């Protein structure tokens, strides 16, 4: 199975290496490392399903892909080539379809243990120092405003509303600062507490400097 995971990793690397939105292969590798860290405490989870979903989770991200159905079909073919049984492939695709923040805006989706691990692994890379960097990188790619004190963060949003442009700083309040409380597994929650504080400290410093207080 390790050779099959390597095939998936290589394919994902080829497709995501040139990404300039903060979802490139460096991000994928960090998510995989996070997943492997969580797996140490949850050895009962299916490792192959976790790693495949961790590698493939951004291939069908609807904010990055124009033809979602075609990409999902391509992913299913990749899993078949990697010799995943149909039930394993379905488990991987179910995780990818239901783990994102936007998929859980209106109603929280039920995830398998493997799905909870991959969701946590991905969310850990969205917070802390790396999360700050990725948020700025993503906003810069799409030309979003960094901060406007007259624009309040949005509270409850549909997926369509969430996809509308906002400001970089508001993104912390609309999404990133919510993630630590939504983590599923004990190892991720422990890491998430520290990374959440890193973001809170950054925002306090940012606003103090913006307002000329220091």
TrEMBL record:
Q: Look up the domain of life of the source.
A: Bacteria
Q: Which InterPro entries match?
A: HD/PDEase_dom (IPR003607), HD_domain (IPR006674)
The record places domain HD/PDEase at: 20-136
UniProt name for this protein: HD domain protein
